[in-house]
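User: Batch of two.

Assistant: Item 1 of 2:
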Amino acid sequence: MLFAIFLMYFIEGNSFARNISISGQVIDAETETSLVDVHVSLLRDAEGISLFRTGRAGQFRFDKIAPGTYTLRFKRVGYETLDQEIVVNADSTAITVKLKHSPHQLGEVVVTPGDEEHAHFEKTTDLNLSAQELDQQMGATIAETLSGEVGMAQRTMGRAAARPVVRGMGGDRLLILEDGRRTGDKSASSADHAVAIDPTTATNIEITRGPASLMYGSSALGGVVNVKRETIPQALPHRPTMNLIFQGESVNSGLTGTTGFTIPIGDLAWRLELNRRHTDDTYTPVGILENTSLSQTNFSTGVSIVKGWGHFGISGGGYRSDYGIPGSPEGHIQGVTIDLNRQRYEGDFEYRFQQSFLEKLKVHSTYTRYQHQERESNNLLGVEFGVLTTNVSALAYMRGDAVAGVWGEYRDHATGGFYWTPHTREMSLAGFYLKQKRLNEDLTLQGAIRYDVRRVEPFKEGIATRAGTVERRDFGGVSSAVSGIYHWDDHLETGATLMKTFRTPGIEELFSDGPHLAVYSYEIGNAELGSEDGLGTEAFLRYAAKRMKINLTVFRNQIYSYLIQANTGEIEWGSGAAGWLWIYQYQGQNAILEGAEFSVNTEILPRFQAEAGMSYVRGTLTASESPLERIPPFNGKVALRYVTHPLNLHFTARFSAGQHRLGDFEEATDGYIVYDAGFQFSFPWWQLQHQAVVTVENIFDTEYRQHLSRIKSVMPEPGRNMKLLYRLIF
């Protein structure tokens, strides 16, 4: 296979014998001045093949173009997106493009050529945050960055350990991916485990639900969060590009720096990215929350051969994070320090077919080495995790909007310290098929089916533990989904999704046995657990006119054998700083999660926008009709924006009702309302694009608590916080 790849690299087709080019200049339609930092994508048959970012003179150029029909797509923040068809014959083509200003547009979604796994498929309830929107919402974690979106919450144990929650569902019911691949960390298994991705390294973030989510996993009833980093370049830039981000915040004296370079070398594209984040302990309205500091280093590099037939690339990188979990009388009074270390290596191959029922073939492989140590204040090792993960996927994109694929994974999981989960390996294999069918101009159907098998095999079987007898477990099941989208006119569309998911218990849920001081608990698995089956339904309405957007979604997820970690009410004596810990054991119970989401965005006056969003979810254990624990209360936000170019201003009120529907041994949380304000300013200078975002969060230093915070009984949420983000693009 490698021989064939490099053979294609050295052989040039006849169509590239002459250097035919497409070039031009992008200008403002009103002032006719040159526009810098316009993203120009060259597409053929709706597939991105190259990318250019204009410089000071607004010029772009694509060389070595074969004759044929192409589409040029022009995108820039504050301007309307423009698609222009170009017919290339034997001679080079030069054009001038005028972009119209769009002051009511909050920001364009910037999509890099070829970066969407399911670009041809209509969106159901998906979300895509562009680089500009990320800058406006950038937090210290992926979860904090997304927490302002409707339906999103975050499970936290301090600022460093946070993970998104969607519609009350977290863990691996909400998959977090890095460039479409699993991260290889342990953030899904426990509240104190951080996601091994820094948000400043993201180019954009996608949230996918419905049939397309089954391309990535069988259990994602809450959806898929895909963080795009582009560590392996998939398009060849026509000049070196640089992206520099600086972020600072006052609430913890935090400083972050991220820089990335992409350099073309012939047909090679080389990518290098460096990231450093450091914070002190977090300030709250009632004092400093001790042992919440963070020190993090992240680097990656990748190289790719980019040709007309596709690309082949490899990458490698490391992520190191040392962060604190605050103390509690229930766990360890001085808290716990976590040392997280991850190495990640990837290979990616894509081949585009010219005359075939196949459009393209993609093959990807990832190897991840993850180490995680939790140390008490006296530096005594409490818990240690080591995970080696290898996965391989192959996807065939067929003409006619269909995708078929296979995915396999091998996972070696070991523990140390005072945590006695047995050394175990997991082997998983899955096959899936996704199809879209446009029945007429108004109605589109999507469907997907997936079958997974998984084997959980301890290296030593027959051992009796408090979780049960340790022995091999085999699982297999089908997941499927179907969606329908009906377009009533150019502004209104409605749709519905029916989804069946399949989730197998993880190693921790089956075999855990030991004290976990960072989450203030003694954890026991359940070796007899079966698979979890979910049935999700949702209906949505979307209205989009020039000056108003409305989204409404209602959903109901019924989950059979919903796997939860429940407080048994029993105490393990002799563990923890206080000499005891609550015992939590995994169990499966039938549950229902149902609710609604609503958002509206309207231009109330020229350049003035008002937006509001709110969500509600109710979780119930059906056997006892009792509340499901750790469910976010009714919450939302209201914002007023002044949007012009190059300055945007905003004032936002975030609010939440109290949560008094509580599971056993769960604390109630009061409601709150807090206020934020800020501005965003962008300007070109020389051949550089500059962007600055200044935000003041919690302006009035309000004392409030989030219901999903595991440390809410110890300390409230952060106090007043002044944030600065500066981005420089070359």
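Item 2 of 2:
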Amino acid sequence: MAKKTVTMAIAYDFDGTLAPGNMQEYDFVPKVGMTTADFWKETSSETVKHNADRILIYMKQMLDKAQAARVSVRRENFVDYGRSVRLFAGVTDWFRRINDYGKSKNIIVEHYIISSGIKEMIEGTPIADEFKAIYASSFVYDHNGIAVWPALAVNYTTKTQFLFRINKGVLNVYDDHKVNEYLPQDERPVPFENMIFVGDGETDIPCFRLVKEQNGHSIAVFPPKKKGAKARTDKLIAEGRVNFACAADYSAGSSIEITVKAVIDKIAADSALKALGKIP
């Protein structure tokens, strides 16, 4: 009997997970004449002042500061800023290695981004084409192609809706009807137990918990050389929020590669056992 092909999904945060720091800090913030510290300090101050969502405020800050500095904010400008983002070690060929390993186990691995960062910047990175969908904050552009308003703001709680979109196969952001329709568990394209969520911090905790509590696997990553970073992710394990903590080094043979391959092995074994249970 031919083995059934199984689909699994790996969803990643971006900033601090696949790349060090925040993507705005590489080129955009210096371009508008600010230091990283001042940009985020002012963002925090405005968030408190207006009792507002931090993501919406930082997006407004980007547009306001760009206008004041006479910096262009067309879509292609944001994409260009993304080209300067530095990725963690091993990320560029990570997807090929994981996809190949999945195929060897009759598993199709789909990759997704769920990030509070800027979608257009992520699209400028060399790994953009590796993702089936990129869910991240983005802008609406006017008739002159200039960013004027948030099209989507992804914060720590709204991140979870995209896991359900992946689970149900409803990938369009605008479709809020199908994603809320009842769909039997055995008809969902990517069951939660076939999901991995990879993130780095507090804004990822709702996703960590959702995936873990639905029998999927959550991985917290930490900067390999940052003092005290591992202790923070170990705390997430102790609190039952994640399954694993790994250094954000995606090189061949790394801790996260070993962990993800082990999860792939488990998904393959679970699928084989389910198939045996269905044989008359």
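The longest strand covers residues 107-118.
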